[in-house]
Every structure is written in structure tokens, then in C-alpha cells.
Amino acid sequence: MFVTMLTVNVADAKAHLSEYLDRVEAGETLVICRRNVPIAELRPAVVAAREPRPIGLMKGQFEVSASFFEPLDDEILNLFDGRG
Predict the structure, then answer these.
(1) By the 8 A CB rule, do 36 and 11 touch?
(2) What are the structural domains, with CATH classification, of the chain?
């Protein structure tokens, strides 16, 4: 596999960031230099493919009590608001 590597100085990277990000997204690697000395490398991110989680994995394994849905008292609400 052949990897394209582009080398640019910081000022050029700042001036054309969107263009360079498009190229990186397309698979290129960008080496950013300061005064022609490499300081960073920008590569496409490796994103793991994710499948949506199925609904109802724990169905029937626990029960939410009715008190869970009751309003919290003022003392607890004040703690959440940082007034406790």
C-alpha cells in the first residue's frame, strides 16, 4: 500500500487548513513543519465501525421502582444546583 505524505509549514497549514483536512480525510498524511523541521503529523482517524445497540438487552432482569419517578426534595435539588 502506498501512502501519500504531504509536507507543509505552519503558516501554509493555517492558511489552507480546510483544503488540507479534505486531503487527510481522503487518505493522505500531512507533515506540519516549523521552519522546515517536522513537528507534527496529521493522519486520517481510525474510526471503529459501530452497530447500534439493541433495545431491551436487560428486559426482565431488573425492575425500576415507582419512587424513581417521584420528584426530588428541595435539599437534593439544591445540592445539584450547587446551593447545598
Answers:
(1) no
(2) 5-42 (3.40.1620.10)
Between strands 29-34 and 5-9, the pairing is parallel
At residue 40, the 3 state secondary structure works out as strand
**Which residues are 33's β-sheet partners?**
9, 38
Q: How far apart (Å, rounded) are the C-alpha atoms in residues 12 and 19?
A: 11
Whether this prediction's pTM lies above 0.70 is answered by no
* The three cell numbers locating residue 46: 481510525
- 42 burial level (CB within 10 Å; 0-12, 13-18, 19+): middle
Give 33-82 pLDDT, tens digit per residue. 999 999 999 999 988 878 888 888 888 998 889 999 999 999 999 998 88
- Distance from C-alpha of 35 to C-alpha of 17, rounded to nearest angstrom: 18
